[in-house]
């Protein structure tokens, strides 16, 4: 949240154009974005209950189980706004899209882009592994509009 807040503050300072109330051009892509990796959702967005301990956790994204070393592609055109290591997320990449949208890709074994790289839908950002996950290879994907958390599954085709 802190990284997104910093990125959003910088975006607002450099752009005098307000984000459109109807999600703008990026909003037209809702439900049509390509999956960043082949796999299946193993942890959905929102409140999740642990099957054994019955504890509740909040997932601000979705976790997609995939093959070790699978290539991760950007879901849309944008610019790499951040790369780094972030605690339990391991290696992360954050893409800034138009109209105040961001996508976050976490638990990458390898990152192949750097800050400032312009990307298109499908541009390879890195590969999956188990850099921070004890559950094996999976991608954690988040979507944000400014600082608002969105369900990435609603945006994927």
Quick structural overview:
By secondary structure, the chain is mainly β. Helices cover 11% and strands 40% of the residues.
What does this structure look like?
With 157 residues, this protein is mainly beta. It has helices spanning 2-14, 24-27, and strands spanning 40-43, 46-49, 56-59, 61-65, 71-73, 78-85, 91-96, 101-111, 118-119, 124-128, 138-145, 148-150. The strands form 2 sheets. Strands 1, 4, 5, 6, 7, 8, 9, 10, 11 and 12 form a 10-stranded antiparallel beta sheet that branches. It has a two-stranded antiparallel ribbon with strand order 2-3. The longest helix is centred in the N-terminal third of the chain and has 13 residues, at 2-14. The radius of gyration is 15 Å and the shape is globular.
Highlighted features:
157 residues; mainly beta; 2 helices
β-sheet strand percentage: 35-45%
Uncertain segments are: none
Helix count, per DSSP?
2
| DSSP E strands, number | 12
Overall mean pLDDT: 90
Q: How does the major sheet shape up?
A: 10 strands, antiparallel
The level of helicity is: 10-25%
Would you list the SSEs in sequence order as H and E?
HHEEEEEEEEEEEE
Rg estimate, integer Å: 15 Å
Structural class: mainly beta
Topology:
Elements: H1 2-14, H2 24-27, E1 40-43, E2 46-49, E3 56-59, E4 61-65, E5 71-73, E6 78-85, E7 91-96, E8 101-111, E9 118-119, E10 124-128, E11 138-145, E12 148-150
Antiparallel strand pairs: 1-4, 2-3, 4-11, 5-10, 6-7, 6-9, 7-8, 8-10, 8-11, 11-12
């Amino acid at each position: 949240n802190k990284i997104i807040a910093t990125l959003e503050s910088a975006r607002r300072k450099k752009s005098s154009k307000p984000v459109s109330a109807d999600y703008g051009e990026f909003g037209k892509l809702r439900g049509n974005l390509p999956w960043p990796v082949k796999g299946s959702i193993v942890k959905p967005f929102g409140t999740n209950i642990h099957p054994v301990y019955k504890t509740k956790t909040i997932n601000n994204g979705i976790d997609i189980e995939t093959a070790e070393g699978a290539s991760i592609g950007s879901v849309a055109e944008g610019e790499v706004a951040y790369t780094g290591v972030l605690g339990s997320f391991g290696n992360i990449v954050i893409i800034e899209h138009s109209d105040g949208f961001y996508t976050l890709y976490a638990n990458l074994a390898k990152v192949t882009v750097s800050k400032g790289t312009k990307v298109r839908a499908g541009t390879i950002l890195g590969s999956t592994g188990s850099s921070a996950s004890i559950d094996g290879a999976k991608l954690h994907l988040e979507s944000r509009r400014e600082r608002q958390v969105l369900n990435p599954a609603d945006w994927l085709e």
